[in-house]
Design brief:
It is a single chain. The protein is of the alpha/beta class. Helices cover 40% and strands 18% of the residues. The chain has 18 helices and 16 strands. The chain has helices at residues 25-38, 52-61, 88-95, 109-115, 120-136, 148-154, 156-169, 185-198, 214-223, 245-255, 269-280, 301-309, 335-346, 355-370, 378-389, 438-451, 502-527, 535-539; strands spanning 6-9, 42-44, 70-76, 100-106, 140-146, 173-178, 202-207, 228-231, 297-298, 327-328, 397-405, 416-424, 427-435, 461-469, 480-487, 492-499. The protein has an eight-stranded parallel barrel, surrounded by eight helices. α8 (185-198) links the parallel β6 (173-178) and β7 (202-207). α13 (335-346) packs across α14 (355-370). The chain is elongated, with a radius of gyration of 30 Å. The relative contact order is 0.07. It binds zinc ion. Zinc ion (ZN) is lined by residues 14, 179, 206, 208, 242.
């Protein structure tokens, strides 16, 4: 078994071929720097001949001092029927001035005869001559053997001849590509083993994920002797994507003791995944192994209890190893421990066996049956606890509101008008407001009326508003769940409302949001603090595992 493999990231080339991805030059530079910091061996950054953006990128990237990463430009073998010197794409690859080039060539006879439509011998010359050209120009040459596994299955003799041509041309590494993503781990093992035994140079693997096998196939290739793995950092790429490097790096490094990046860089795996997702404008799948937010999130009560006693009872590695965190999600199945942590934030005297704990757990179940979900609405859950503990006094009451809709609207920002009447202590206040929709108008009117009594509400604004239809088969009679996030510039908090009426659900969430702000202000006044709460506490749905509670 090898002890070190090279990681070759193609997020900027193969990854850029994924639907919905488009990088600016600045985006690409940022990603190169992040991957260099993480310590991946190679970054394939595109084809300078393919477009102006890539051309500009290669010009700018030369000015960056890379510490760990070798930059690679990507292109194909020369076109059929011309000499290498005549091929403009080959020339533009040289102009990128990267120390290394990745050259792809055909190894599946079907592609030679039926797709690029040339002779089998001419294809071998195309491979050998192109590689020799770059070697003469002092480049490291990585040969991407396109469709190698399909080619080998169809005509092993020819597929191996293509590799032999690459080796004769002076290639430094043979990368076996499962371009269509249809290979299985046992095939990848056998075929890679054959190549490793046949050629005296480095062998690598480039897998696509069409069978959900890209990571498994790459690991089998390493088992068979491959020492170079190509993929994209968070797995995106053509169709179903490429080998996910953020999965395979910890798999090899933590499970197989095969080094991919420096050990002290493993803790940056998750933050790099978030960063690349952000720049690529891709929402990271929260179920992603190692780097997803849910990778170490526990919901079942038995699981939470187990993790608190012995973390490895329900975790395959420590989340900290890859820069992730353990989280306990709140729900009816999460059991008393999780709920208790929240209760004790409000009343430290209450224990696991107190009657109040049971009462709140029961109420949580009832609310979840109605469609509430508190995992993303900690502020509403805190209010629920206060209500059950008798530590809640409403700050106001909404007597009624009326909505007037204007259709077609003369002005988008005032298409809805709301008249609202509220009561604070014994004083009533009636006010009206316009908004760009009924929810916006209700929010504005409610706040306008309340600001008369509670001036600090002027600081509050909505930062996010999400609606989810809960029982879609009921069509217009369905329950909707509204989740809103509010901020006062210093802290943010989330609240939830459920109703068959979207305005009513929104109002429940809005009222919770305002009450939470007023309660927090009150608490801090009592304690003489200027700030209230903790930004992370209110934003994050995770609960720390406290010694003595679990
Ligand atoms: Zn590919």
């Amino acid at each position: 078994m090898v002890k070190k493999v090279e990681i070759f990231d193609s997020s900027l080339r193969d990854g850029a071929q994924a639907g919905g991805i488009s990088f600016s030059v600045e985006d690409k530079l940022k990603i190169v720097k992040a991957l260099d910091k993480l310590g991946v061996s190679y970054v394939e950054a595109g084809n300078p001949g393919s477009n102006i953006k890539d051309h500009q990128f290669f010009k700018k990237v030369k000015k960056i001092n890379l510490e760990n990463t070798i930059l690679v430009a990507f292109g194909s073998t020369r076109r059929k029927g011309i000499s290498v010197d005549e091929d403009s794409n080959v020339k533009s690859l040289l102009e990128a001035e990267t120390p290394s080039v990745a050259i792809f060539g055909k190894t599946w006879d079907l592609h030679v005869t039926d797709i690029i439509k040339t002779g089998l011998e001419e294809n071998l010359s195309m491979i050998e001559e192109t590689i020799r050209f770059f070697k003469t120009n002092q480049k490291e040459v990585i040969f991407d053997a396109e469709h190698f596994f399909d080619g080998y299955k169809n005509n092993p003799e020819y597929a191996l001849k293509a590799l032999k041509a690459a080796v004769s041309g002076g290639a430094d590494c043979l990368v076996l590509c499962d371009t269509n993503g249809g290979a299985f781990p046992d095939e990848v093992f056998k075929i890679t083993e054959k190549v490793v035994k046949s050629f005296p140079i480095k062998v690598g693997v480039h897998c696509h994920n069409d069978c959900g096998m890209a990571v498994a196939n790459s690991i089998m290739a390493v088992e068979a002797g491959a020492v170079h793995i190509q993929g994209t950092y968070i797995g995106y790429g053509e169709r179903c994507g490429n080998t996910n490097l953020s999965t395979i790096i910890p798999n090899l490094q933590l499970k197989k003791q095969i080094s991919c990046i420096k050990d002290d860089q493993l803790v940056n795996l998750m933050s790099t995944a978030r960063f690349i997702g952000e720049i690529s404008n891709i929402t990271l799948d929260e179920r992603s192994p190692y780097v997803g937010n849910n990778a170490f999130a526990h919901k079942g009560g038995m699981h939470i209890d187990g993790v608190c006693k012995v973390p490895r009872s329900f975790e395959h590695i420590s989340p900290e190893n890859v820069g992730n965190n353990r989280r306990f999600l709140m729900s009816e199945v999460s059991g008393k421990n999780t709920v208790l942590t929240k209760i004790q934030k409000i009343d430290k005297e209450i224990t696991k066996n107190s009657a109040e704990t049971q009462k709140i757990t029961d109420e949580l179940k009832t609310m979840e049956n109605k469609g509430y979900q508190f995992e993303g609405a900690e502020a509403s859950f805190e209010l629920l606890i206060r209500k059950q503990l008798g530590k809640y006094k409403p700050f106001f009451k909404v007597n009624y509101f009326k909505i007037i809709e204007e259709e077609p609207s003369r002005d988008e920002d005032s298409s809805s008008s709301v008249l609202i009447k509220i009561k604070v202590d014994e004083k009533e206040e009636m006010t009206a407001a316009e908004g760009n929709g009924p929810v916006n108008a209700v929010d504005k009117a409610l706040r306008k009326a309340l600001e008369v009594f509670y001036p600090s509400l002027k600081e509050v604004y909505l930062t996010d508003y999400k609606v989810r239809v809960l029982d879609a088969e009921e069509a217009t009679g369905a329950n909707v769940r509204v989740l809103i996030e509010s901020s006062d510039g210093k802290n943010s908090w989330s609240t939830v409302g459920v109703s068959t009426n979207i305005i009513k659900a929104s109002l429940i969430a809005l009222v919770d949001s305002i009450e939470y702000k007023l309660i927090s202000d009150n608490e801090n006044n009592k304690e003489g603090k200027i700030n209230y709460g903790n930004d992370n506490d209110s934003k994050d749905t995770s609960l720390p595992c406290r010694a003595g509670i679990c």
